[in-house]
Design goal:
- Helix content is about 85%, strand content about 0%.
- With about 80 residues, it is mainly alpha-helical.
- The protein has one domain.
- Helix 2 packs antiparallel against helix 4.
- The longest helix has about 35 residues.
- The chain is elongated.
Amino acid sequence: MSLSLTLFGDSGTSDASEHLLRSAGASLVFGIVGIALLLVGYFLFDFLCRRIDIQEQLNKGNMAIAVVVAALLLSIAFIATHVVS
């Protein structure tokens, strides 16, 4: 232990660990916010497209709906990334 204190010093260790914990907490919160925005966007899209039953079409293997939903989720994720950061 004394070797590590001698080599690396004790000053600033608490600041670095506090900064690391704060950054990890912020990443966790932003990740949760991003996932929540994805869910809200998907359900809003599902609500606005009442004539198309998206889940039924996905279960039937409709690739066109799958591509549209994938593009929707990617665009929401892109927007959420730039809004949160």
